[in-house]
Write a structure and sequence with these properties.
Elements: H1 3-10, H2 13-22, E1 27-28, H3 29-33, H4 40-52, E2 56-61, E3 64-69, H5 71-81
Antiparallel strand pairs: 1-3, 2-3
Helix pairs in contact: 1-4
């Protein structure tokens, strides 16, 4: 996982919406695709891009593949973002 892949994956509004849906827990690709007016193949493509970026993990149970958010990647991105904000030390001018 690298930041270029992560930010590229996050740049797509469909992928961001998928991540919002996954914040409540694991879902199958079928469950996810019910929320969109697009083919299952298109949803599968978006999921593969999220997986490639490390933003989602997949696990198999019987005949289903479940997708869930990979929290550690989000923590890494948030940690990186923190360097751009916050209170400056009073000694700095």
């Amino acid at each position: 996982m690298g930041f270029p892949e992560t930010f590229k994956a996050l740049s797509d509004p469909v992928r961001r919406e998928i991540l919002v849906m996954l914040k409540d827990g694991k879902m199958t690709a079928g469950d996810i695709s019910q929320n969109f007016d697009m083919t299952a193949a298109t949803v599968s493509y978006h999921l593969s891009q999220l997986k490639k970026a490390g933003l989602v993990l997949e696990s198999r149970f019987k005949n289903y593949i479940y997708y869930e958010i990979n929290i550690s990647v989000f923590e890494e991105v948030m940690l990186w973002f923190t360097q751009f904000g916050g209170i400056k030390n009073e000694d700095e001018n």
